[in-house]
Amino acid sequence: MAAPSSEVERQRDKERTRAEILAVATREFADKGYAGARVDEIAARTSTTKRMIYYYFGGKEQLYVAALERAYATIRALERDLDVDHLEPEDAIRRLAELTFDHHEANPDFIRLVSIENIHHGEHIARSEALSGMANPALDVLTRILDRGREAGRFRDDVDALDIHMVISSFCVFRLANRHTFSAIFGRDMLDPKRRAHYRLMLGDLVIEYLTA
């Protein structure tokens, strides 16, 4: 019978291997899309084999879905842990917007994966129990902020949390997803570090101005 410490170490090895595969797979799918990504290439860039990848995930589609689930779980966890209940409603909404702004900028592969999944009409997300059943902490946080703002007479009452979530996400996704075409047409790089603070402030201002109009 194996010692408990050996069992624990084996479990850790499995978790490390799975995490390594997912990290490489995320980059591969983000770079080449679902159709263009190859499990052979993913295996070659990890310390595993194609057979081991199939053992852990079952197949290419399951691996792609697992990469999506991992990407969404990261932002959902950040939203869930966000503590803004002690802030004034305007400051709280700005903090949530900044969280999304920072996350999306730091995780361009997330934006690419979302764009790719939309090309596939969200069919993989729709079939994922983890994703379709994943609660959206951002909506919970937004609902509390909006309720406090309305009770104080500072926010309009004809918008809901999903409206504001859409506005914040649209701004943050556009800045990443359309960076190169926007730059080619207008000659401005939306990821220019010199304008980062400007765009981050602009997002919060847009949301607050809309809520207080």
Q: What is the secondary structure topology, with strand pairs?
A:
Blueprint (H helix, E strand, L loop, with lengths): L3 H33 L2 H6 L5 H8 L2 H22 L7 H18 L1 H12 L3 H5 L1 H4 L4 H15 L9 H17 L1 H8 L9 H17 L1
Brief overview, please?
This protein has helices at residues 4-36, 39-44, 50-57, 60-81, 89-106, 108-119, 123-127, 129-132, 137-151, 161-177, 179-186, 196-212.
Please explain how this structure is put together:
GO terms for molecular function: DNA binding. There is one protein chain. This protein is mainly alpha-helical. It has a single domain (4-212), classed as Tetracycline Repressor, domain 2 (Orthogonal Bundle). The protein has twelve helices and no strands. Helix 5 packs antiparallel against helix 12 and helix 9 (137-151) crosses helix 10. The relative contact order is 0.10.
Keywords summarizing the entry:
213 residues; Tetracycline Repressor, domain 2; globular; DNA-binding; mainly alpha; Tet_transcr_reg_TetR-rel_C_sf; NicS_C
> How many DSSP helices?
12
Average pLDDT confidence is: 92
CATH superfamily: Tetracycline Repressor, domain 2
Helix content: over 70%
Give the C-alpha Rg: 20 Å
